[in-house]
Amino acid sequence: MENCRVRFAPSPTGALHIGGVRTALYNYLLAKKLGGTFILRIEDTDQTRYVPGAEDYIMEALAWLGITPDEGPSVGGDYGPYRQSERKSMYKEYALKLVENGHAYYAFDTPEELDARRNEEKAKGNHSFKYDHSVRDQMRNSLTISEDEVKSMLDAGTPYTIRLMVPTDERVAFNDNIRSDVQFSSNELDDKVMLKADGMPTYHLANVVDDYLMKITHVIRGEEWLPSTAHHVLLYKYLGWEESMPEFAHLPLILKPTGNGKLSKRDGAKLGIPVFPLSWNSDNPEDSFKGFRDFGFLPEAVLNFLAFLGWNPGTEEEFFRLEELVGAFDLNKVSKGGARFDFDKAKWFNQQYIINSSNADLLELVKPLAVAKGIEFSDAYLSQCIDLMKERVQFLPDFLEVGYYLFEKVRNYEEKPIRKKWKPEQKAIFEKLLADMVALENFDAASIENTIKAFMEEHGLGFGNVLPFLRIGMAGTMKGPGVFEMMELLGKNEVNERMTAAYTAFDGIKGA
Ligand code: GLU
Q1: CB 3.0 to 4.6 Å from 291: which of 95, 278, 302, 508, for a disulfide?
Q2: Contact (CB, 8 A) for 57 and 16
Q3: C-alpha span between 318 and 490 (Å, rounded)
């Protein structure tokens, strides 16, 4: 489909939730799959909800993940501007056109009047007052006020909104790529505001007008927009654009890790997991988050994880980089049911992508973290650390945190194996072994290994009597990387110092 045009249309009201990133990704994948165009449109008509920095955040998040728009505020394109606030003057004519052809009306009810009415209804036990077909003839609007009076009110500059006149007793039906036939009874739909008193369009009007003017062919967005689509379908009809109506696809909800309920931004803080791509810092600590990037995720892992939140290729294959996702993606394989946000799966993906990254690529990512921590080692050294540790970390900072002992002395020793196996008389034996190692001309892993093996044989010692102590002496833990390689990397002097310190510490632990 040459002319497939899709858009990601976030509102800059704060940090972009991970669900929004998934929406962007699926849009991108479909566009690329069909050889089409991926558009970023900033929906910033609601000035009261505008948050400075949110647009930059959105762009940075997309750039980090490599989901780059073909058209958008920063790249331009033939259908701009791509910020709705810069398109303000375009919308009113469509609202007026709706009024003209009898599908919308002027409403003069003030916010105070609407509040009063809402309260009245509440007092009667009706908590969901809707401005709809059942009440519109009781309100102050151009359906209840004479034409002349309406004209003079408009001439006098009386504030007004324009509301869509939803028909009564009609079925509003549309096809959804994920949910098939979707139907609404028009009686359930309220008379949505199209143009606000400040002259700005609402989301509904601006969204449909822009989708039309930008020649959007597929609207892919979160499930929460499904009810709005009924209004949008009416708008296409009343504006005479039925022929250009896009295809719709409403993506499943992202559920909490437990599977119960929708994943919320509060879940992130509560569970100590990221639910945003990047960190977001605001004056309000409750509105500040640590993102996937700052947890130390690779963008490839996040993409792979997100792609699988609601889609799978229908095969056993789990690893897909962006270009592979483009090949495999299919909107028809997106599930209807909610997708559980399984953070363990995200970690697992990250681990796999770290293992499969080159040392050089990892160096680029780990080096700035090291510098920030004041860890100053040569690239060659860091690169060897990366090689030793890459099968043992989940997040990028782990290279420096889990593997801290490659950069500084051991902070504390794992005590259990020492209590169980260390015997004070071993100290003398180990000192001999250390002397043999220090005497080595080539202090490389193979020579170290040979020396240790020869020594064990000579003294009738098994691996279990020697290696755990060497490991703990070098790294403080049994879980570190290969001990011979680690020793080679640390170098003779450091090994000597660490082992000497360790024997004394081991005696202390055993004696304690
Ligand atoms: N501005 C809407 C949002 O913030 C866009 C919804 C849509 O894609 O139509 O999600």
Answers
A1: 278
A2: yes
A3: 37
Nearest alpha carbon, ligand 1 atom 10 = 10
Question: Can you read off the two tokens belonging to residue 374?
Answer: 């004041």
Q: Distance from CA of residue 322 to its chain's centroid? A: 15
Report, as residue numbers or ranges, the catalytic residues: 265
Q: By alpha-carbon position, which residue is closest to atom 2 of ligand 1? A: 10
What phi and psi, each to the nearest 5 degrees, are found at residue 191?
A: -80, 85
Q: How many CB atoms lie within 10 A of CB 207?
A: 25
Closest CA to 330 of 307, 304, 301: 307
Tokens of 185: 């009874």
Asked if 405 and 471 count as a contact pair (C-beta separation under 8 A), the reply is no
Pocket probe for ligand 1: among 207, 226, 236, the residue whose CB has the most ligand atoms within 8 Å is 207
Q: Which of 18, 23, 30, 203 to mutate to test the pocket of ligand 1 (most atoms within 8 A of CB)?
A: 203
Ligand 1 centre and the CA of 49: distance in Å?
Answer: 14
**Res. 351 pLDDT band, cuts 50 70 90:** very high
* 226-254 tens-digit pLDDT: 999 999 999 999 999 999 999 999 999 99
Say if residues 39 and 174 touch (Cβ distance below 8 Å).
Answer: no
pLDDT in tens, 127-166: 989 999 999 999 999 999 999 999 999 999 999 999 999 9
What are the tokens at 126? 């009706």
Q: CA separation (Å) from 318 to 197, 208, 313, 345, 353?
A: 51, 37, 8, 11, 12
Under DSSP, is residue 147 helix (H, G, I), strand (E, B) or coil?
helix
264-296 as b/e, with b when 16 or more CB fall inside 10 Å?
Answer: ebebbbeeebbbbbbbbeeeeeeeebbbbbbbb
425 membership: H or E segment, kind and range: none
The answer to whether residue 47 scores a pLDDT higher than 90 is: no
Amino acid at 28: Y
Confidence of residue 1 (pLDDT cuts 50, 70, 90): low
User: Measured between alpha carbons, how far apart are the two ends of the chain, in Å?
Assistant: 75
Residue type, 155: D
Q: Using DSSP bridges, classify how beta strands 193-195 and 161-164 pair: parallel, antiparallel or unpaired.
A: antiparallel
Integer Cα distance of 235 and 228 in angstroms: 11
3 state DSSP class of 163: strand
Q: Classify 339 as helix, strand or coil.
A: strand
Instruction: From 9, 188, 34, 175, select the one nearest 84 (Cα to Cα).
Output: 9
As a whole number, mean pLDDT of residues 373-392 equals 96
Helix or strand (DSSP H, E) at 19: helix 18-33
Nearest CA among 32, 36, 71 for reference residue 329: 32
Query: Do 453 and 495 form a contact (C-beta atoms < 8 A)?
Result: no
**Residues composing the chain:** 512
**Ligand 1: lining residues by beta carbon, under 6 Å:** 9-11, 43, 203, 207, 221, 225
